[in-house]
Amino acid sequence: MKIVNDEKTDMNKIIGLTSIALILTAGLGITKGVNSTTNTLLADESHGGMSHSHKKMEIPAGKPIPEVELIVHPDAMKGWNLEVKLTNFQLAPETLNQTSNPNEGHAHLYINGEKITRIYGDWYYLEKLEPGSNKVTITLNTNKHEDLVKDGEMIMDTEIINQE
Q1: Closest CA to 140 of 73, 83, 61, 57
Q2: C-alpha–C-alpha distance, residues 74 and 80, integer Å
Q3: How distant is the alpha carbon of residue 147 from its chain centre?
Q4: Is residue 120 within 8 Å of residue 106, measured between CB atoms?
Q5: Which of 43, 92, 94, 147 is close enough to 51 for a disulfide, judged by CB 3.0 to 4.6 Å?
């Protein structure tokens, strides 16, 4: 084994690592909106015309079809408590980034098409929203962050919260 440690090699490594970092971070903030007619997320074109999205996992034939229901409860003090009811799907943060399973993983929370956070439990407290009509969406995602889909449609639920 020959070890080469010169400025050119070091510079090539830095350029390579910088390129990888730029490619990976370009995927942040990947959505622009939710089309309530089709209940699908729209791709963002703000990255120089490039669209970014998660890979998709179609529910295989014979597997139970996961379902998600989002229920919004006004909080007694302020804000809202979001309840996530699941059927044929288990939240499994302990298996994050492991082999994908169409019936386990995590959820993503979007507000007005912007991804806010991952959801690992049945409840999430939402303290405040922008004034006006706000679309709150929960999507189901595999351990490897793929969007779960059935017949090409994302498995998700959207509720509208009107903030005065």
Answers
A1: 57
A2: 4
A3: 7
A4: yes
A5: 43
Q: How many residues does the chain have?
A: 164
Closest by CA position to 123, among listed 67, 66, 71: 71
The mean per-residue pLDDT over the stretch 102-122 comes to 96
At the fourth CATH level, the homologous superfamily of domain 31-163 is Immunoglobulins (2.60.40.10)
pLDDT tens track for 6-20: 333 344 444 444 444
Whether pLDDT at 64 is above 50: yes
Torsion-angle region of residue 112: left (phi > 0), alpha (psi -120 to 50) or beta? left
* Residue the block writes with tokens 């690592």: 17
Q: What does the pLDDT average to over 56-85?
A: 96
pLDDT at 164: 85
